[in-house]
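seq:
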Amino acid sequence: MNSIQWSVFLGLAAVATLTASVRAQSRPYVAYVYPAGGQQGTTFEVKVGGQNLAEDSDVLVSGQGVTAKVVQYCNPIGNRESAILSQQLRDLQKSKAKLTPKKNKAAATSTAAPPTDPATDEMITKIAKVLREEQRRPACAAFRGVAFIEVTIARDAPPGERELRFVSARSGASNPMVFHVGQLPEYSRKPMLTAPRQILGKEAQALRNRPASEAQERVNIPCTVNGQIASREVNGYRFAARKGQRIVITTQARQLVPYIADAVPGWFQPVLALYDADGKEVAYDDDYRFKPDPVILYEVPKDGEYVLEIFDSIYRGRNDFIYRITIGELPFVTSIFPLGASVGESVPIKMKGWNLGGAEITPPPKDPGVHQLVANRNGTVSNPIPFARDTLPEILEKESNDTIARAQKVTLPVIVNGRIGKADDWDVFQFKGKANDSVVVEVYARRLDSPVDSVVKLTDAKGKLIGFNDDCEDLGSGVNTHHADSYFTAKLPADGAYYVHMGDTGRHGGEDYGYRLRISAPRPDFALRVVPSSAALAPKGVATLSVYAIRKDGFDGDITLTLKDPSAGFSLSSIGQLKPPKKTKGSKTPPPGPSSGTVAASQAVAKIQIKSSSTAPHDSADLHIEGRAKVGDQEIAREAVPAEDRMQAFLWRHMVPAQDLMIHISNRKSAPATPQRVPPPLTPDQLAKAEAVVKDAEAKGRKFSKSQVTGLARRIKDLYEQGLLTDRFYGDKIAELGYVQ
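struct:
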């Protein structure tokens, strides 16, 4: 091997090292998943937009019965890669054309398919997809990277909401995205190409150009339809319905992507309109009660065809404006009563809604907290409805109790399950109190999907105002932007009778207007959120997380953090000089040390470290962080809920809950896994060509610098490893560079 051949060989060997060093190490980010769900017992392709969707990623879907694998990545490419791929595509298409026999009389009558090379066809398809998906100036850089995955849902997979994540061997797990397992046949429109950035005065150039035939699709109900809304776009669905059918049309849009940082009001605001065969609008909705996702409940007056249209309220749109709409005579629960019960207590739950004949509601779990219930009718489940359990005594409201004179007498502590039964209704409750006692009045209604926008006040027997509240922000309700539930603490001025007045701010009421009203002494407590919901650690490495303390009823004590049932090889500790918790006699709270951290008294957020003692990379682990604190003589424990810090409309930030806290052990310093395609050595002809290029460059001066040549060679190798270049084309391109080290 002469000196030029040896330098070409060294250059090719260096490509692998350089490739490993420049790959993005940031956490993968998923901006959208389309379609955001599928039917049980099906396999289908899903398009994912995001950043740092590395080639070594796996796809995980929470729960049972759903598997996913990556089919192809279409990560951002530059002008040179685009030119190289275009040339390779032309060469392949020419080669395929040569293999296709010319048409003649015999061929015209033959039914035999023309000869084809599956490998060539596959490469043509992959290259065309990469070139088609490339957008240099996307509407949002957060979804410039694109991946296609294949999802398989088992027939017995439980229906409902899941979480989908990308997990890279080198950079850990992504943020979770909502993914649904459905029970109905599904229709999905073709995925949008990456939306281009709109330029002021030239917005029309960025609009989606779609054939008119795709504006409206015919579907058979019941079904679920999936789509993406582009700027100025309206999607239509035509279906047949019979007289007397009670059609339920529900939308999932904001539920799929709850917050969009660079859009006002901060999410896709879908609007539904239903038209009859004559084009007359027969139903319309732009939200369902206080939720942005609309619902239409329509009893069909006559047989015929109907058209459902969906669009954004101000005609915005881009790739992450994703929706799922279910249409059919399906069970839908509008309300339940009561909204909760004491821990362990069995209570009859009354349902109200559409198509609930023969439906049974799932029994609520016995433990405290908020649980999601569904109605099941002949195997088809309804929308989920929250149901709360608490440890306090509970009673039912008794009418008529709308004045002080008719007030319902209660004994504290108590939770009252009641209704604002009619418009402009007030429910009044009387209790006996003592001077200097502190009393907490709290409403759970909006947080349990009730339409009640509560207002509460506390008065004495003469009507003198002691306490009052309309809205109180709950930082723990991450996707609720209208904090309509009321809360206050008041100190009683004297012994005597006191009255809690409960009403609706808008003076609305009805059977659906249920609430839970807590009247009690303060119950100091806390909730925890850990952000982000995933992190990557090197072997024996450290990841930093933030733990937010949501303090309740005046609790301001220390909270000790530990790993609950930790996976082997992980430990937790605080960052910074935080006040250590006090060790009290008989407390189960572990002392601060290498396996615990602290949220100090009155502190809202603390930084913690998760450390791995493992020396070898392994799969992701689902960790659970527990906080313990002393309240009087009692110790309470609360598990931290994983969450993602999300921005709404350029300004507000919210903690969106996630199902899992995924910690992944990676090894960023090691070389990446061996690619499935390893470039072949150059042929003698290609080596000779490379030598000629080098000699010519030495004689006439280099066209490219060494670093430029190295970079080009690396990009060509990347394209080859992705299955986008043939062996011959790869070697020819490397030879044309005259690549030397």
